[in-house]
Amino acid sequence: MDYKEHIRKKDGGLQAILSYKEGRKWKQKSKQGFEDSKKGEKKAQQWMHDMLNQLENDLHLNRNYKNITFKDFTDMYIEDRKANLSDNTIATFDTAFKKFSDLNNLELKKITTMDIQRCVNKMSNANARESSIKTHISKLKTAFNYAVNKYSIISVSPVKDIEFKGEKSGIKVALNKVEVNKLLDNVKKSHSVKYYIITLLAVKCGLRIGEILGLTWDKIDFKNCMLEINIQWNKIDGSYGFAKLKSNNSYRKVPFNNLVKSELLHYKNSNVININNKLFNLNNTKSLSTYLRNIYIKAGFDITIHELRHTYATNLIYNGLDLKTVAKLLGHDIEQTMKTYSHVNDDMMNEAINIINKI
């Protein structure tokens, strides 16, 4: 690319001017307000260098998408990725994009970091959960990275240095033993037995909601008190059914205690077994999660069913089980477990220090 750089004094400071040739025409980019000093001159030169790199990158952009809007891009992105992503993952992208609907009519190339920040601020002001905001930003970042690296629509992603705060900290809620018993007792007395059993399996076995709804009676070994987790209930091609598990680590066997054994046997003997041998004749995991959350809130616990799985893991670690075994029971890899539950080990170390100080 043919170009010329020039720095001149203007309005008490310095102005950087970058002239460049596009086709047969010369065009110009300029910026003023740099300090009239060696330091200001250096910053002006850096600005021209960065601008030149951006212009050269823009030469390789796909002209077919020159004026594509955020809405048209996200629709195209979802359609193109359907073949390689699960319905659940596609749904999380769709949900995330809707949170940034204020960008819909903007051309993708004109969207700035501040435009995105305003959308995030809107979520924070609406008391959205910190984890939810983080997920939405992550999905948006993935899509914009595709716009840069796959579609060549833009040269640089604006999803960077986004600040946010949410309703909760990054550490999930974990109930103690007394709270677990109180929750189970409330659900058992006040709601249908199936919701009690689902809650029991989440907090005493650490199962995901899809694994619970995919559980069949033939996968329960009452003699050895063991659950075999090798399938889940999930959305496939727009409808719910049996599906593969989340990852290879998810395929596992999970032991259960005498309370779970007793309650499962009573539930089995008191209910007609479904034709597909499922424990629960429920389909929609999302609506079930919402319904259970409302049950838990009414019982005095502001938690989700997934946080009962977190409670299971946290209590195992507090009671001395090593992280490798906890990871195996959860269906995680060890690195993921160490990252998620590092704060538990920190708490245990602090407790050890307190005990040592008393000796």
TrEMBL record:
<dbReference type="Pfam" id="PF00589">
    <property type="entry name" value="Phage_integrase"/>
</dbReference>
<dbReference type="InterPro" id="IPR013762">
    <property type="entry name" value="Integrase-like_cat_sf"/>
</dbReference>
<comment type="function">
    <text>Site-specific tyrosine recombinase, which acts by catalyzing the cutting and rejoining of the recombining DNA molecules.</text>
</comment>
<dbReference type="InterPro" id="IPR044068">
    <property type="entry name" value="CB"/>
</dbReference>
<dbReference type="Pfam" id="PF14659">
    <property type="entry name" value="Phage_int_SAM_3"/>
</dbReference>
<keyword id="KW-0229">DNA integration</keyword>
<dbReference type="InterPro" id="IPR010998">
    <property type="entry name" value="Integrase_recombinase_N"/>
</dbReference>
<dbReference type="GO" id="GO:0003677">
    <property type="term" value="F:DNA binding"/>
</dbReference>
<dbReference type="GO" id="GO:0006310">
    <property type="term" value="P:DNA recombination"/>
</dbReference>
<keyword id="KW-0238">DNA-binding</keyword>
<dbReference type="InterPro" id="IPR002104">
    <property type="entry name" value="Integrase_catalytic"/>
</dbReference>
<dbReference type="InterPro" id="IPR050090">
    <property type="entry name" value="Tyrosine_recombinase_XerCD"/>
</dbReference>
<comment type="similarity">
    <text>Belongs to the 'phage' integrase family.</text>
</comment>
<keyword id="KW-0233">DNA recombination</keyword>
<protein>
    <submittedName>
        <fullName>Integrase</fullName>
    </submittedName>
</protein>
<dbReference type="InterPro" id="IPR004107">
    <property type="entry name" value="Integrase_SAM-like_N"/>
</dbReference>
<dbReference type="GO" id="GO:0015074">
    <property type="term" value="P:DNA integration"/>
</dbReference>
<dbReference type="InterPro" id="IPR011010">
    <property type="entry name" value="DNA_brk_join_enz"/>
</dbReference>
